Amino acid sequence: MTKRVTKGLITIIIAGVFMGLISMPNSIKNKLPNDPVSTWIKNQKISLGLDLQGGTQLDYRIDLRNAYKKNEDEDTTNDVKIHDVIEGVRATIERRVNNLGVSEPQIYTSTVAGEEHIIVELAGIKDIEEAKKIVGKTIQLEFKEPKKELDAGELKATQDLAATTLQKTREKDADFNAIGEAIKTNDGKIDFRPKKTLFASQLGAHYQEVLPKMKAGEMYKEVISGSDGYMLSEGNITEKKGLFLVQLISSEIADRTTTEKDDFAEVARATSATDIIDLNDRRKADFDMEEVDTVFTTPKNEITGIIKVGEELRVYKVVEKIEESNDPSEVQASHILISYEGAQGVEGATRSKKEAQQEAIKLQKELKTSPDQFAELAKQYSDDSSGNNGGDLGFFGRGQMTKAFEDTAFSLKIDEISDVVETEFGFHIITVKDQKEAKEPLVSVLRIKVANTEEARADLEAKLKRIKEGYEVTKKEQQFVFNELFFDTTPDPWKETGLDGAHFKFASVSYTQLGSPQVNIEFDSEGGKMFEELTGKLVGQRMAIFVGGQLISAPNVNEKIAGGNAVITGNFSLQEALKLANDLNTGAIDAPIILSGQYTISATLGESALKVSLYAGIMGLLVLAVFMILYYRLLGIFAVIALIIYSIMIMFLLRTTPIVMTLAGIAGIILSIGMAVDANILIFERTKEELNSGKNFSASVAAGFERAWSSIRDSNASSLITCAILWFFGNSIIRGFALMLAIGILISMFTAITVTRALLRTMEGAKLSKNRWLMGVKRVELKND
User: Does the predicted model carry a pTM greater than 0.90?
Assistant: First the structure.
């Protein structure tokens, strides 16, 4: 029994210490080291609601009248799920808010007087009017095409803005830092970079003749054009061009430490002065048995480890590789071409495409039974000039013919007759007369070769380390510290096409023949024509799909799509496909959002509310602690310890979960503290009754818990039911109160039943347990154990 209790207490103590570390105030946690565990502990913070940290709450009403009309008309194909529309609107607003850079925004739905609302809580937002413009913009579905060049008007507007900003920086008492912070945008199109530090060799070309001539504190008097590096856009690496305003802060000579690597070829020449180091187009037979597998399995541009070959040590760098191929390197093929009117590259054909296909099928069947007649039939029927030679095309390799023709020719065995193959030239029947051998794998390498001695191995290992890992080099170099304001003039990758949600009918999820999810989309008649024209123009390119100004998908257009129906495929999971379809339907439905309320709390008021709430909670705990100790004495001390553990568990839960703490939530926690004490009072009163009846401490504690349990269970169960009712039928404020009250009740039950019991059992058999005054009971004769 003692061992079991000890283990239970040890578990509670270890868990309490761990949760206590995470629950510590930030001022203490910030003193922890920067190892991964300490960093994780420091990152656990309480998410405060708007009423505790200040900010703005925006209440948007969703106008669902048009969505309801779609469900009420006779056309069932355009019916929508109202819940999906609401969720789509919420998700779109969430994407917009995330682009504002707001810390921990809260976005949730609410039903007010039978109408659906989206509540947006923005803590610490600087420009609320700009936020309202972005968040409240109409949620519109748009299809866009790639844009190659910046519009002249767009470029001029950026140039004018940069010039105007430069003029502001040259005004008396102008603060470049304040100007930069005020004008920068969240999308990075205008970016302020304070105290940027670069060495002279790191400067872009646009700065190399500017910064060295400037004085500390000087603002350069012109707008500078230049490159801001490169970015990955739609799978392509694009130069990021723009305009710069720059202010030099300081310039000095400083140590610059870089990592350099030795060149393998130079090391090889210096180490193997008498050996051939360049070995080009070598076969497996050119290498020794000990090294051949290593060399041929090493990727291109990689370096092998040290290989022992007889009395030598060798290292290779693979410069080039030609992989082994099972396909022949070249084939000699013959073909019969049956062309048709309009086919590419053939003039004079009068038959239709269908007639050409039927004739090719007829010839193919004849050749299957009489393959030796191929040359004669080619001379008689082929529309290609090779027909004069019996259809013989000679030898050719990969990449010389159209793909369909090439793939078929390289897959045939000698004298085998193909099926009918269609290309842009017409219909082909192909046979292969000869094949050249498959490619043998080849490598071109650089080699280092030294004698197999301990000294040579150590030297070679050191050289390889300098080649692979590099070594630090410190040099003196001019260093510049400057403030930089960048205006991006890179073209927006997409431009409008005129095709939007007004012409979109609906999107749905279906499955391919292989069982993969895909998204089906359908347009009305006018939209179908626009979509056909757009896809015809974008074959081989991407078409962007935007909802509410946010890019949600950019599928590749494989072919011109007519009829107003299309399929979006990709490596979708079912959830991703459903989300894409829901986003498309949301953007297509005319479900505007209307700002119906705005509520602002100053940061000072929120901070004051938080301080008052914390003060009330701490005072409540202290009053309860004093009461429990004075009235229940030793038992009260155990109750206070349980309350401390309760508080630590609450703080741990708030710091490690996404629960947002509000004033109503704090009220729920404070109320649950009182309920936690209620459970202890019931247990202690029952225990005192048993002690007064003459039972010993151990029996009294067991009976006290047993007799009190039914009352504790029923009272807390009824409270939890009340919390559930408040959660399901209340608004966001009531829900916050109900959630925290329910969590507090569950934790208080754990601490009152489990923690308090474990603490009390440590007193079994101890002298203190026989002290009637400490137990708060009358002096009576104890019955024998």
Answer: no
